[in-house]
Amino acid sequence: MHKLLTPFAAGAALLLGACASTETVQLVPADRTFVNFSGVCHGSVNSAPLWGTALGWDRFDFSWQSFQPQRGKWNTAYLEKYRQRILAAKAKGVKFLPILDYGNGWTADGIPEQEFELGGRVYTVNRRPDGDFDVAGYNKETVNGRPERILIEKRKVSARRMSQRFVPDDQVADWEQFVRQTVTALKAEPYGVEYFQVWNEAHPMSSFWYGDMDTYMKNVHLPAAKIIHELGGKVVYGGWICGESISEFVAYLDRHDAWDSIDVFDLHYFPLAGMEYLARALKERGYEDKGIWQTELGFTAGANFIGNLYPRVLHWALENGWDRGDKYKLFYFAYGTPNDPKAYGYRRGLLLGRELNYSGRSLETLAGILGGAPLELYGPVRSVPALKPELDERLSSLENFRVGNRIVSAVHMLPNNNAKIFVDWNGDLDTIHIDYENPLLRLKYPELDPTRVAKIERVSMYGTRIDLTDRLEKDGNGSAVNVPVREPDRKEFRYTDMPENFLPEVFYTVITLRGE
């Protein structure tokens, strides 16, 4: 793997002389970059900006039913169209994550009736007289001293949809053939796909898999993983849904001894603490080198989502063995929605129609200040009021990075009540009204000589910049700067379709260093 000396390590190596051993110098993976960390679901590289700068990955379904509409018949036109999509992405420096899904849709004749448990609940799959299916989930509870099943949800599933959301025993060989054909075709040059996701959100009530999870492991995941590895590819688990606990995911993998079958463990819509839980489970089992991704998260109109979450995850990743670019990633769902209030997911994508939505602008800003070079941690940095990195996204936080010749501090100041009062939880519990007059946050860089600073800017979550260079102060042997907490131009976020009480909770301080 190609790695780089950090700026600090390179300087140390020069001081030590030519005979110094580079084995003692910290190496930085050249692909540990923001763009390689950031992906999207169901994108289109021909439609808008962000590609190759803020987005380095696109995740898209590769349909078994579309590729093989009938047993023994392959739709080569579908394969070719997909491969052209991959080449268009590669031309913009974007990598592809195919999702190998779902059932073939040929027949539901071999699908059995089932009753099974998962996560302390009971699920049933029963065939109806009309040939369709009833799928139901029940809580196990004690009522009046007697065990009872309390219905959670019951849904009718057509036979055709059931055949698209299950792989019975008599179709496993067909599934294996599909996986082998697909991986062989997409892994070949010039396409060069490396990672393959097996299915999507398999769970008996997810609407993407109707059946026993042990059958999913036996008939779908393990056969596909074996073939992908035989062909030199890497396996991404199909996305554990946030409706089921991660402890159940870990128990499920333990039960099937499936840890070796997976290269990247994937979660959907979990908070950062979920990634921490999974990382601990991997370390306990000796698999701390495996990857952890979230290939779906977001799908929110919340304007603070990306600014609040992404810097926290990046900081956490750098503290948790991010020794190769592909170890940690986030994929936003979804790329865009029509600019129509009646459209599904309206305002929840990166794009709204053809324009960047709030999340898209926030992602573009982050890519602009954290992109262009490998990511590193930077420290020490101290703040007044006192802030520190936090796993809990509901808490105020501070993360500090070094990116090339830039030092970037991501500041999260979250109000603690509806009067927008910030409490100095890490200090003496003093307070600041963060939406009144002109509150300031003091940032101290004790190891940064002021003469090394070429420029200091405050950058808002949506990219507005204020030059703070003339506010730079010498602080002992280091530097300090007072940074405005509030947006300088309130019109920036006083859009007609934003809530009147909207308050940006994230901003950045970017220090550009003089050439060394």
**Overall number of strands:** 29
Distance between the termini: 27 Å
From the helix content, strand content and strand pairing, which structural class follows?
A: alpha/beta
Outline, from the CA principal axes?
globular
Mean pLDDT over all positions: 92
Strand order of the largest sheet: 11-10-5-4-3-14-13-12
In short:
This protein has 516 residues and is of the alpha/beta class.
Outline the structure in words.
An 8-stranded parallel β-sheet has the order 11-10-5-4-3-14-13-12. Strands 18-20-21-29-25-26 form a 6-stranded antiparallel β-sheet, with helices on one face. Helix content is 24%, strand content 29%. The two termini are 27 Å apart. The model is unreliable at 7-24 (pLDDT under 50). It has 516 residues and is an alpha/beta fold. The chain contains 11 helices and 29 strands. The chain has helices at residues 7-16, 34-37, 64-67, 76-91, 159-164, 172-187, 213-230, 246-256, 272-284, 305-319, 358-370; strands spanning 3-5, 27-29, 38-41, 57-63, 95-101, 114-118, 121-127, 133-143, 146-157, 195-198, 234-236, 264-268, 291-298, 328-333, 336-337, 351-352, 355-356, 375-377, 382-384, 397-403, 406-412, 421-423, 431-433, 440-445, 453-460, 465-467, 473-475, 478-484, 506-513.
What tags apply to this protein structure?
516 residues, alpha/beta, six-stranded antiparallel beta sheet, 11 helices, 24% helix, 29% strand, globular
